[in-house]
Amino acid sequence: MRSVESLIFEKGAPGRRAATMTAMDVPTEALESMVPTSMLRKEDAPLPEVSEIEIVRHYTHLSQRNFGVDTGFYPLGSCTMKYNPKINEDMAVLPGFARIHPLQPESTAQGAIQLIYELEQYLSEIAGMARVTLQPSAGAHGELTGLMLIKAYHESNGQGHRNIVLIPDNAHGTNPASATLADYRSVEVKSDPQTGGIDMDHLKALLDANAANIAAIMMTNPNTLGLFDSKIAEIATLVHETGGQLYYDGANANAVLGITRPGDMGFDVVHFNLHKTCSTPHGGGGPGAGPIGVKEHLVPFLPGPMPAKNEQGYYWEDPGAQSIGKMRANKGNFGVLVRAYTYLRTYGPDGLLHVSQSAILNANYLKHELESDYEIAYPQMCQHEFVATAERQKEEHDVTALDIAKRLLDFGMYAPTVYFPLIVHEAMMIEPTETETRETLDYFVSVMRQIAEEARTNPEIVKTAPHTTPVGRLDQALAARKPNLRWTAGQETTH
Amino acid sequence: MRSVESLIFEKGAPGRRAATMTAMDVPTEALESMVPTSMLRKEDAPLPEVSEIEIVRHYTHLSQRNFGVDTGFYPLGSCTMKYNPKINEDMAVLPGFARIHPLQPESTAQGAIQLIYELEQYLSEIAGMARVTLQPSAGAHGELTGLMLIKAYHESNGQGHRNIVLIPDNAHGTNPASATLADYRSVEVKSDPQTGGIDMDHLKALLDANAANIAAIMMTNPNTLGLFDSKIAEIATLVHETGGQLYYDGANANAVLGITRPGDMGFDVVHFNLHKTCSTPHGGGGPGAGPIGVKEHLVPFLPGPMPAKNEQGYYWEDPGAQSIGKMRANKGNFGVLVRAYTYLRTYGPDGLLHVSQSAILNANYLKHELESDYEIAYPQMCQHEFVATAERQKEEHDVTALDIAKRLLDFGMYAPTVYFPLIVHEAMMIEPTETETRETLDYFVSVMRQIAEEARTNPEIVKTAPHTTPVGRLDQALAARKPNLRWTAGQETTH
Amino acid sequence: MSYIPNTPQDQQAMLATLGLSSLEELLSPVPENVRLRRPLDLPPALAEPDLKRLLGNMAAKNKNLDDMISFLGAGTYDHAVPSVVPHLQRRSEFVTSYTPYQPEVSQGMLQAIYEFQTMVCQITGLDIANASLYDGATALIEAVLLAIGPGGRGEVVISSGVDPQYRRVLHTYAHARGFNVKEVPTRDGVTSVEDLDAAVSATTAAVVIQQPNFFGCIEDIGAIEPIAHKGKAVFVTTITEPASLGVLAAPGDYGADIAVGELMSFGNTMSYGGPALGFMSARSKYMRLMPGRLVGQTVEEGGDKRTGYVLTLQTREQHIRRERATSNICTNQSLLAVGATIYMAAIGKQGFRELGELCLQKAHYAYRQITAIPGYSARFSSPFFDEFVITAPVSPQKLQRHLEQAGIIGGYSPGISYPDMENDMLFCVTETRTKEDIDTLVSVLKEVQA
Amino acid sequence: MSYIPNTPQDQQAMLATLGLSSLEELLSPVPENVRLRRPLDLPPALAEPDLKRLLGNMAAKNKNLDDMISFLGAGTYDHAVPSVVPHLQRRSEFVTSYTPYQPEVSQGMLQAIYEFQTMVCQITGLDIANASLYDGATALIEAVLLAIGPGGRGEVVISSGVDPQYRRVLHTYAHARGFNVKEVPTRDGVTSVEDLDAAVSATTAAVVIQQPNFFGCIEDIGAIEPIAHKGKAVFVTTITEPASLGVLAAPGDYGADIAVGELMSFGNTMSYGGPALGFMSARSKYMRLMPGRLVGQTVEEGGDKRTGYVLTLQTREQHIRRERATSNICTNQSLLAVGATIYMAAIGKQGFRELGELCLQKAHYAYRQITAIPGYSARFSSPFFDEFVITAPVSPQKLQRHLEQAGIIGGYSPGISYPDMENDMLFCVTETRTKEDIDTLVSVLKEVQA
Ligand SMILES: Cc1ncc(COP(=O)(O)O)c(C=O)c1O
Ligand SMILES: Cc1ncc(COP(=O)(O)O)c(C=O)c1O
Description:
The complex is a heterotetramer, with 2 copies of chain A and 2 copies of chain C. By secondary structure, chain A is α/β, with parallel strands linked by helices.
């Protein structure tokens, strides 16, 4: 049933309260004797005045207006929306992990440093890298960190002038955005329309034309089309020959666990999205963690501190003079790292291989079953995801990928990633992950086929979807044209 | 939107698993060498074979198909569906409370015994009683305990022949059912149609006729009509004069905190429903806790053990020879007691008085606002609840209390208790509790008025309600005629 | 701290609607002769953080199962709870709902209970089960009351191998209700078949045993069942350690008419023994005599006839049948039933067997190690599941003092209830005890000698 | 343990559909020259209970805030979290959702973030706020990058009263992006106004301070703001201790253009410093330059025009604008923003002020007690909020050893970053420290003398 929840600001009444503060158990002094009057707050911040039951019902209702992996199938391509194990959540909130201060003495944080130390080892092994820093807060943050490392490396070799980062046309937007932040110029590499991999001729041409200025190439493998670039070893050689470095965007690492390692493919730097590959929940947008693994030659440049161990126990080692510095306060998203650690210890080596194999199987199975009704951008065997399109539906019935996405919501499922990668028209990027049952996949297929049938016979129902969600399609244009980014007194919700 | 969730047994597949068991880390022996073959299980119990994600989605969906206080207004009369504070839940799961064994040495359970010891004191003070046993598991269990105490008391006085328990006609069903279990005969006392209290003439007649055989009278005050029986002191005197005891059903204690005490009214025994008055959550049916408070003369009969304290600390004292024995294994619903303790310490004396005052205000406010559209069974000032009726709607438009209850569900609220107390036709027993906002009460009023209007103008919409719930009205007759109390292989859910 | 949302201003406005001006005026129906005219003598209100500090300190005064290695069972068992269970069981829609009187908005709880009833049948091998009872002890009582019938008179025969607490409760109820209880002694840790045979007569209403019994011993049902059924008695079996059903025969398979017991250890917290989770499972013929709530499957009244769940056969219950109800129970243990349901789904068919095997193997390993220590001997030779009685060279009090210093909580002292077992200790070893835990226990025991 | 639901049989059937017979065949696109032909060298899989034991032991090796009385702040603050916050924040519909790309089924998260944006504005007194950034340090960077603009060159002036970690991050970014950073020294614990005046020029892109600053001292904004604004610089204020805003002037009121900082301590776990909750609030004119996600209110396209929430102004972001985006951020800290939102609703208007007052009063009580001890003196005389620097008679290392024995974690040692503060300790006293805690600290300090 359609419904609207008014804002918390529209609830409550003057004087209403929920949580109470601890007693003032010390002798007090006048505020003015402690703080110059000019620096005292003039008016109370107009935060809500609501009772606890109002808060509980409000946010309970909001949660009920939100779809998560626990609600149903979430085939959002590139996002690896796998099941988030409950044990991970429980471990992260153990007081010994959740209630510790980042600056407390090392002697009182041995378990925390040990966990980080061991997690570094596990990720290094999975990536085939020498060392890993767990500092970056998410994938994009990792990308920037990695590019800074590459930059520091080039500078240390007197190659500080290298200013070009090659980025495939199907890359994620964070790749070029990160390059800009590292003061690099992004140059697009075309992909091969047949293989979906890098267009080798174009790559060679770009390398030739810019040989002295190539800082790096950023790639995912499998790429965002879900295709494994089989030329990867050759690409690595070519890029390395020009003096460039290879950066591996690990957003698709769920396809390679125990199968192949970025380090072995020839990459110099890799980031992980622990909130994808390692099952830490995405929390409606974050937090995540984007550890960076590097080959030996980049180790001196890593940001600090790094975990270390001697006879006395675990400790934090300050970085050397070549370190790029620090990417954020403290040691990283520790709460996320606890979850990832738990995940890796749950599966072990055989389990992780099976994770990737199963993710690949689920994707190929879906691809196969959808072929009859939808165009598949690249028909070959895919890895953990693939790109279907609504081109046929668009052309024949004016039904778009967006329409199909919205219609899926009516069946208790989330939608695939749509209109990405940018090089595929009407793209629907589908990533089932390994944690879905065959029955769920079959249900998704049956719904997708039904939607294809509706597009043929009753396109209106698709074009006006969704029909069963709490609200109908929202006016995005209005939101951008007249931005309303915060509530102001007097403003009212329409029901 | 209407929907059905298939049973967990219809999900999964052979060999699917969720939780794994700890490793077998000891040397093993053949089962047959340890257990006689005849006593070995022949076939595995056919429990579900499901993966963790299936379990999570299944029970998440089930929760979404359930309405709680956290979802919305729950004016279920006699059930005191007040807000269940979250801190109570957190305290109850502290490992020091949740992970302790009932038989562990007293020296290792000092905090637990202390909590029980202090909670007994608080409840004694609230009830105006000498001591309280926290053993009974719920209200009905408390009733039986109380009646057993009364019986033991009479027996100790050579009055073991007393076999009648007087019970008002508006009493809850557990009262006579408990009397039967204590081998007592229930005799109904009429209530006065004007005051709603005990019909004094009828009471006197019953007392006269059965003077020597009166074991006790069981009453709530305020009673289930939400009315305070102002004759209570006189009733107590009359019953005591015949040698009978007074039992106070504390289900309505939310109306009397700090205002009046069962002990002061003349009652000899009282039970509390901590899952009502003390805000412990009802859990969809339980658990609760039904502590019993008694006057001094009944103390020797209390079940054991009872908490005690000396210089060494807290300990459990075995009951004396006159004790009735034991009402259940171990010490009571400790997890519930932790919540109740937290609740009482949250409010303190002034707060508890304000709880009852506010509950009474909310009830009178609703009663006043509904008077225009509904019959009110007893028009006088009520306590924490009151009984409205659908008599007018029934007579004029064939719309029943049940129809109105169902229609309320369409507006995101639970329904009042209907058809209880039995003496009121088309009863709708409404208990808002103190934790509801004025806005919520006003919304309820507006919906009730709308329903009254619908009964006049469009009765069908009420009679076919609910319309927006996960399922429509269910066939209760079929359920009772062809009971299906468990799933059996092959049985299928219809969607 | 207060959860009353309405402010004094809100309340004044509401009072004004009623034509009143103070909260005190609302109390006029309460006559002065019973009014409390002083504040309650209770500790003052505390703010949330201060209250948490207070209760945190109180909880810390208890040694919990994470602080100590415990070998206590005796009716309350420590089984590992998968994380998934509390995450789902504690969803507030379940926690904050009442008994599902309005099925259309209570399908979640109703369906979960229907699944609970089914799973209880699956593990007991019986036909039906109810929605829960207070605990194992009162479940046993309810079974006996069912057997006794509405008259409330008659006699039941119970093995003294049944948990002493349960028997104490039975005597308490029997005295009030007016029926007789005959106890049958044990021999070598199991019910004496000869004495049982002598005790059971044609008029015995119920024969009650526990399997495995309080000593952890496995009763010889092959010998007991024919005796139980030689008259018209209802044969009731009590299961306090449900993990045993992973490897031991199901009550339905060995001729029990009713199985009752305790399921708290499946997915719920131990919480000093409560809230607990009594269950009752029975042959279909007892359907209309069952105590407590029953959930049934049905369909919509309307045209779509979707499947749905309702409370059913309510004419058995107190709110309809009143003094003639099958029981007085109203509030039960639903939320714990939800926990047990999710638990059983989570461990599943295979895990349930493995659980039984783990407990059995670990307990037997511990038994072999302990009985190999000079001075320690097995009290009984009967087969057992995950508990066993050891006769120690010193009193259990002394033993416990030594164990406690090593961070161990030893077994229960059955001497409390069985006078001839003064130097005995009842050890319990579930799957939550590691080999290392057991070896630690053994090494401490070795040091304690007469 | 595995979360892969499909069994080998399921997978065989699916492979058959694909005309394949083994999982290995699915890996054919990965050429042999990059295949890993050995198992990963990782510890073996663990069952859930065994893994819990492992991690439980690891967690127990850390001393947590319940084990010790802590006076550590220095950018990470311990504020009590009302129980209601995690109960709601951790509802799985929030936790397990992705960035709300499909608004129709993500209204809950979108509305919560819209409320977060509003509350951030309410406490900062500024016009707009975004949906969160990684942490306080990177939020500061984002503000500077906004001020610097797309060219990426220019100069920013920052007070050395800003958290040394934040400044370290700024230098790291500045080096890569290619802009300059000038640091201004402090005098008596606050930014030296003369030096600031000298450092800021007409071409300075941003002037950055922290309020209260790293020493807990309250900056004299009345003197700073005119200097910051004398050219075209963006005046950025950093707030690491948001409780201060309960009593201290709001950035919007003292002329800041952008306020950034850290809100993790509002409703979230401390978790060794992360995940954290960076925020950015600004004057409206920076709306289209803001980094990160923004949620906006809108209405349905259809006839009913119900209110709804969407991600908006996305053309600023990397997935649309790519190399010309205002930031590279994608995944942010939404779930922590939800926590902070519920927290701010729970403490409310009145509680927010009280929180500030409690911290202020308790810290000043501690300050008075400590500075009264012979040998201990205040390092600065500037006003402060809930942190202050004490010069001790011994080194902070030695002091900490003594404190640790008494179960206390002392303050941070600013000497690590400020070489002239070798014998100093930065004490933090929030509302979570009781008078008893403070008195215990004072009594231990008294015992420690040179
Ligand atoms: C291919 C790819 N690269 C990079 C990213 C950025 O990662 P994050 O969101 O963790 O910053 C994503 C996230 O969606 C991605 O899919
Ligand atoms: C008036 C009254 N008495 C007794 C009871 C029985 O209490 P319980 O459900 O806790 O057994 C109730 C519960 O609904 C009640 O309302």
